[in-house]
Automatic annotation (TrEMBL):
Residues 38-47 have a biased composition (Low complexity). This is PBS lyase HEAT domain protein repeat-containing protein. Keywords: Lyase. It comes from Halorubrum lacusprofundi (strain ATCC 49239 / DSM 5036 / JCM 8891 / ACAM 34). The keyword Cytoplasm does not apply. Residues 51-63, 71-107 have a biased composition (Acidic residues). Residues 1-116 are annotated as: Disordered.
């Protein structure tokens, strides 16, 4: 027989009167000896027959509910948990009717009793505490909020005031030695950590120190409310955020409309990359987004910073063609790995063209072989795309591209591809590459022969200066 039935069951009427008297005396002794944290009502525990029925289980749970209403200590709640364990055991052993599966509205005694036990379990958990651990958790959450939030100047001061008030209030309950400086966020966080440590060191008992814990909980509620009320950047309107961060400071007066565009032009002229990024990420406007990206494109290498690269690479990874074009203008070697993955995307010729050019402007040696593969006339790359692959190889200028470009010049059916291959070989600029192009001076295709004539001129110029 489980603990609740064997230890807490009342007399069924068959016990010796002396035993009953002894139990009464034991109960009196328990009441006299009982202190905080000890259950003193064991003799009044409800009983459950060995063969429980739906009715007896419901009566048993009714009595447990009454005990829950009267519970004052953690020990009382522990007793109720034990009684609920007993109820679950009794329910498992009870022979209860099963509901009719074909009738959705049929009674389900077992399910109803399981729900009652679950509700009482929840009630026990809700009645527990608060504990010192709850105070510490709340303090740690506030410290995280303080550290992770982007505060305005006024908001930072208000947050600091909230921490000061909390430390002062908490020091009335536990021994705290913390005097945070307002101008140092780390000091404020350290002060909260000091209070959390003091609470842990106090070893507060949920029963004996209930008032102290409640006072600390009230203090943490005040801290949380103070931080919630403190002004964050997200609380400001967009133009207020921009003004607070100095975005409009470059303007003597507002000129073009919108004024954000006027400021953007000035930031571009001054090379203020961070301010252009601020506008790009703050202003929910297709108009301003386009102008911010165009500013980066015009700035080229001047616009390349760690922050702008991160922004543009994130866009490029999503196949944003504008961002890819800008990365090329920036000669951003960091983009090579991402862009090489797009070289073979034959289903998107426009993307390929932009990627090829960007890789050429970057001078990405890692892209030589993937680009050379796109010259294959037997492959899937469109004729309109292959000239861009050839030109990209010329921009990169790697001598490994000479052979595939020479093959394209000699064998490709497209004059556009052949002319682009001739141009690329001239850009590589070695004598071998230029002589390869010069052989086609009598070519029937004007655009190919033009490249050959320029190659001959380069050779003549080199001979004249030799």
């Amino acid at each position: 027989m489980d603990y609740a039935r064997s230890s807490w069951c009342m007399s069924n009427g068959d016990d010796d009167p002396a035993d009953a008297s002894g139990e009464a005396d034991a109960a009196d002794d328990a009441e006299e000896a009982g202190g905080a944290g000890e259950s003193t009502d064991a003799a009044a525990a409800p009983t459950l027959p060995d063969e429980a029925t739906e009715e007896s289980l419901n009566e048993y749970l009714d009595e447990i509910a009454e005990r829950l209403d009267d519970a004052e200590t953690e020990a009382d709640l522990d007793d109720i948990d034990a009684l609920l364990d007993d109820a679950e055991d009794g329910l498992d052993e009870a022979d209860l009717p099963e509901p009719d599966e074909d009738d959705e509205d049929a009674d389900d005694p077992r399910g109803d009793l399981e729900d009652r036990i679950a509700e009482l379990r929840d009630g026990v958990e809700e009645a527990r505490g608060p504990y010192a651990e709850d105070v510490i958790d709340a303090i740690e959450a506030a410290a995280s909020t303080l550290e992770d939030t982007e505060w305005t100047a006024d908001g930072r001061d208000d947050a600091a005031d909230a921490v000061d008030a909390f430390v002062e209030e908490a020091s009335e309950s536990v021994a705290v030695d913390a005097f945070p400086e307002h101008d140092d966020l780390d000091e404020l966080i350290a002060a909260l950590d000091a209070v959390a440590e003091a609470v842990a060191d106090a070893d507060l008992d949920p029963d004996a120190d209930a008032e102290t814990i409640a006072a600390l909980i009230d203090a943490t509620d005040g801290l949380e409310a103070g931080l919630d009320d403190a002004e964050e950047w997200d609380d400001l309107e967009t133009h207020e955020q921009l003004r607070a961060q100095g975005y409009y400071d470059v303007l003597g007066h507002y000129k073009d409309f919108p004024v954000e565009w006027s400021a953007l032009k000035e930031h571009e002229a001054r090379g203020n990359v961070d301010m252009i990024l601020l506008a790009l990420n703050s202003l929910e406007s297709d108009f301003m987004e386009r102008h911010c990206l165009e500013a980066f494109e015009r700035m080229g290498k001047r616009g390349k910073t760690e922050a702008s690269l991160e922004e543009l690479l994130g866009r490029a990874e999503k196949r944003d063609q504008f961002a890819i074009r800008i990365l090329g203008k920036m000669a951003a070697e960091e983009a090579t790995e991402t862009l090489v993955e797009f070289v073979s995307e034959d289903s998107n010729p426009q993307l390929q063209k932009i990627v090829f050019k960007a890789l050429g402007e970057i001078g990405a040696a890692e892209a030589v072989q993937p680009l050379a593969d796109q010259l294959d006339p037997e492959g899937d790359t469109e004729d309109l795309v292959r000239p861009h692959a050839a030109r990209a190889l010329g921009l990169i200028g790697d001598t490994r591209a000479i052979d595939p470009l020479a093959d394209a010049l000699a064998e490709d059916d497209s004059d556009d591809v052949r002319a682009a291959a001739g141009w690329a070989l001239r850009q590589i600029g070695t004598r071998e590459a230029i002589e390869t192009v010069a052989e086609y001076a009598d070519e029937h295709s004007f655009i190919v022969s033009t490249e050959a004539e320029k190659a001959e001129q380069s050779l003549d110029a080199a001979s004249a200066t030799a």
